[in-house]
Design a protein that fits this description.
- By secondary structure, the protein is α+β, with helices and mostly antiparallel strands.
- The protein has helices at residues 12-23, 37-47, 67-76, and strands at residues 3-7, 29-32, 54-57, 60-62.
- Strands 2-1-3-4 form a four-stranded mixed β-sheet, with helices on one face.
- The longest helix is centred in the N-terminal third of the chain and has 12 residues, at 12-23.
- 19% of the residues are buried.
């Protein structure tokens, strides 16, 4: 299973989501969009918006999703 988390430096919701993933031992790739134009373009292309955290879970996009919102999705998919 591939999980990409698009983040922005200083984003408190990103920090919460990252912490939840790390606490539960979930492997994910973090892509910080403010310092990388390619990642920002990718985020906008995939989700039609630029808010974070946004998750790409095996090609399924969960835009602007908090830890509280993404947790049940990960549970439903058997990741946590």
């Amino acid at each position: 299973m591939s999980i990409i988390m698009y983040t922005k430096t200083g984003c408190p919701w990103c920090n919460d989501a990252r912490g939840m993933l790390n606490e539960r031992g979930v492997n994910f790739e973090e892509r910080e969009v403010l310092s990388n134009d390619s990642f920002m373009e990718e985020l906008v292309s995939k989700s039609a918006q630029n808010k974070t955290p946004t998750f790409d879970i095996d090609g399924e996009i969960f835009a602007d999703s908090s830890a509280e919102e993404i947790g049940p999705v990960l549970s439903e998919k058997g990741i946590i």
